[in-house]
Amino acid sequence: MERGNPPQEPKGNPQMMNGDLNSNPNMKSKPKIVVIMGATGSGKSKLAIDLASHFPIEIINADSMQAYQGLDVLTNKVPVQDQKGVRHHLLGTISPHVEFTAKDFRDCAIPLIIEIWSRNCLPVIVGGTNYYIQALVSQFLLDDYIEDQEANYLFNLPGDKKPDFELELEPIGVNGDYTYSHLKDLDPVAANRIHPNDHRKINQYISLYIRSGVRPSELLQGNIKENWGRANNFRYDCCFICLDASVLALDQYVDQRVDCMIDAGLLEEVFDIYKLNADYTRGLRQAIGVREFEDFLRRCTSECQNPSEAVCSQNSNAKQFKEIMRQIMDSPIENQQKILLTEAIDKVKLNTRRLVRRQKRRLSRLQMLFEWNIHYVDVTGCLLSASDDIWIVDVVEPSLEIIKSFLDKNNMEEARSDCEVMKSAHRDLWTQYICKVSDASSILVPSPLVFFSFFVTAKL
What we know:
The chain contains 17 helices and 6 strands. It is an alpha/beta fold. A 6-stranded parallel beta sheet has the order 3-2-4-1-5-6, sandwiched between helices.
């Protein structure tokens, strides 16, 4: 499958990019990064841009759909004029036709972090795609480990025991893919861990079994099972800030934002990439807000008598298309087109609200199961009031204090009483955990980490 090309990694040891960073003999070897997480609509990008007024930062986008070129309104990319001159990376740079996986993101982001540090700036990772962030900060990426274990397994097998069988599974589709059902039949434990639409992993796991005769779940044993995803094995010193809000506030904000997107041209964007019977499991078409309009656009195109009409032509003028959509929405007549359009918009809102809940559950899992020290900042009041003053007091100022503490404290380790208990607890990485997320707004106490001298001058 076609892949995006990651940037070239700068030459030189990432630990030795700056002399002033190495002048402190007590400095830890891991470089620092800030990660801003949270559910969609919580204000992650806005906070990151505001932080640039106080710290020398560059932003790396960690939203899987915002990484792609196109659909700027639908994916809610920050417009250039709102970026306030802050440098952004991996924002609208990936071809919409490729599969940009967590591994691809990691391989792009690591050299970018090195480059950002070489400019004496602080890398700030911003996004709601938590598995991207997990792949970046954790040195144990399961995909890499499976490939390594497979190679080791085959290498160590005696010559007369090399697998010479072929699994009787027929690939389907134009790309010769296997299905999620194939994997469930073969290895239900492994299938339970991944998303049914993650075709790359489905193919990888089944191909592994075909070549080695070993189920993927059987490879993840011992040290990798204990260390994968845990905070004490991060490749960076991380400061995690999560913008949290009540589910009701997020639901209300999401509904309003979808309406604003419709007014800003969401339908025109979706129409531009509309393709009959398209694959909505790959690339940019996975974004919420694309597939939901399939029935509506199909009806519009099928009812056109003249191929040159605006709704039928993929080259139709955007203004004409917008006018047609507006006429449908404003019409007092409940015709089939209007019903389908209203249903599509409601589906976008519903699926976005569901995404919010999934994101909150996953963030809770990272903290509870993997001991991530996440600092929660409550944005409920900001979503309900849309006041700049409340935003500064409730969100920006607490975040500044968290980051300042993260950068200022030297060689201090804060013990957590439940750490050893959690370390001894049994964890099964192949199980899908469901964690109920409360709407608590308290800020967790940060674990003090190392201080780099040039950040002392941060303007607070």
